[in-house]
Write a structure and sequence with these properties.
Layout lengths: L2 H11 L2 E5 L8 E7 L2 E8 L2 E5 L15 E3 L2 E2 L6 E3 L2 E3 L8 H5 L7 E5 L2 E5 L6 H5 L2 H9 L2 E12 L3 H9 L4 H4 L13 E4 L3 E6 L4 H9 L13 E6 L3 E6 L3 E9 L6 E10 L6 H26 L20 H12 L3
Antiparallel strand pairs: 1-10, 2-3, 2-5, 3-4, 6-7, 7-8, 9-10, 11-17, 12-13, 13-14, 14-15, 15-16, 16-17
Amino acid sequence: MTSLQQAQQLRDGFWHLLCHRSELPSSGDYLKMEWLGEEVVVYNDQGNLLAFDNLCPHRGTRFFTETHGNAPLACPYHGWSYRAGAMHIPCRERYAQADLDNAKLHTLQLDWCADFLFAAPAPRMTLDEQLGDTYALLADISFNIAGRSDVNAYAYECDWRIALENALEPLHVPFVHPESLAELQLGDGSNHFTPWTSVWQAELGNASMAKKLRSIKRLFQLDQQYEGYQSLYLFPFTMLSSTYSYSYSLQHFFPSAQPWRTHFSSRLLNGAASASSAAALQGFFDSSARMNRQVFEEDHAICKRIAKDAADTPRFGILSSDEEKIAHFRACLLAAGH
């Protein structure tokens, strides 16, 4: 089995956290993501969310070309559209009825963990089974998110496993991120593992920064907060990380159909705040977005330097105690049949 076929099995057989409910608040809102040479769109159809492959069932034209926005779900080629749960086809009398019976969007199965939307083509287990004990934590987090303030997406020039393993371990932080993430001075922290997820939590060693972060707590309305750095991994392709739970970076490391390419994206989700605090916090969210972009650019730069076959070469399998989340990830791959 090729690595592309293996990635397709992971895509098709597992649930993927695509978005938070607050990212698509209005009818016509959409998000577009890429995986394995295909696209998946999440769309708000008059309050109902659906996920589909971004292709018109008539002649295969892409509905959307931007990563996000608000627009009717309408094909620019021949005017086919979708609204209120149904396809609307101009000049229906010119088509055979048997063909129209098959004129449907190619949708994915959906499930919710509180306000987080998951999708899967053909899941091998329920969402509850896949998330395990992490389900409750993820649900609590979802209730403390109020919107999105940044979208950052581009191709990493490396295998998706290399990109993901980089995101899973803190050992590289002082070397790769000396003037960004390393300024938090994260402690050793602790890991919690389930069969298909992992959670790392670490305190901030930078006392001055921790004091500043605690001082703005009054501007937020959070029912659940971890006062430190927290990173959730959801097998196979997703990370969710946060500092003090004030905002969350939802990251995808989707495989590409091209070798040594990863469809990377990070969207900044804002923590819930009172209406009177929204303006005061905009600068904080903008600063968080800039910092996240710098960190991911630094990660991409180092990942490009890693040997192309490193993910499949036993020679490069040495792991430290700080890289136990990578060991867990590799165990997940084996358990999934890879």
